[in-house]
């Protein structure tokens, strides 16, 4: 009985592996996910620090709230790429699960291709946002800041990060499209 419980706990505590069709790129995305998980833990620690500073020492910080929002946003944005690599993106399984193996392959190719095209469009939109957030109208590099009393460049950095992640999504969905086209047999 103890072995069953230990095995169950071990399987629930393990991060999901990327699907084989994600390739080496998907394995790298999966491995980097740990950094963003650590970022969430750091954000929780910073929130605890802020509560202690504010309510115990009556000395609230200027920087914790914005840093927590920034770390959380980074993890959230990375989560899209991570979900794609482990093939946990949105899919209407009530229909998909009823398809034959051959039709599933066709749907996988079509879904990957549509996601690739959508990621390209979103990348272009993100690039337009990066242009406004990273350069002045005169062409000088200057990151957009939050406008708060602390005024960190988090908004500009986050827009650049979103752009990079969207480009990586294009890469991931390109890999999926090619690998699903090559694949024969069961999913």
UniProtKB/TrEMBL annotation:
General function of this protein: Part of the tripartite ATP-independent periplasmic (TRAP) transport system.
TM ranges: 28-48, 68-85, 106-127, 160-181
Quaternary context: The complex comprises the extracytoplasmic solute receptor protein and the two transmembrane proteins.
Name of the protein: TRAP transporter small permease protein
Membrane topology note: Multi-pass membrane protein
Primary subcellular site in the record, as a coarse category: membrane
Domain Tripartite ATP-independent periplasmic transporters DctQ component: 44-169
């Amino acid at each position: 009985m103890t072995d069953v419980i230990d095995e169950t706990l071990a399987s629930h505590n393990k991060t999901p592996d990327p699907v084989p069709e994600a390739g080496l790129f998907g394995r790298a995305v999966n491995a980097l996910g740990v950094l963003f998980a650590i970022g969430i833990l750091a954000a929780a620690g910073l929130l605890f620090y802020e509560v202690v500073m504010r309510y115990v020492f009556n000395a609230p910080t200027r920087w914790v709230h914005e840093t927590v929002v920034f770390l959380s946003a980074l993890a959230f944005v990375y989560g899209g790429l991570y979900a794609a690599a482990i093939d946990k993106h949105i899919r209407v399984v009530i229909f998909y699960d009823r398809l034959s193996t051959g039709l599933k392959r066709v749907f996988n190719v079509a879904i990957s291709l549509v996601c690739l095209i959508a990621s390209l469009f979103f990348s272009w939109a993100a690039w337009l946002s990066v242009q406004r957030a990273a350069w002045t109208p005169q062409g000088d590099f200057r990151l957009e800041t939050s406008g708060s009393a602390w005024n960190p460049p988090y908004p500009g950095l986050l827009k650049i990060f979103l752009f990079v992640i969207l480009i990586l999504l294009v890469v991931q969905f390109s890999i999926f499209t090619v690998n699903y086209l090559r694949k024969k047999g069961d999913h």
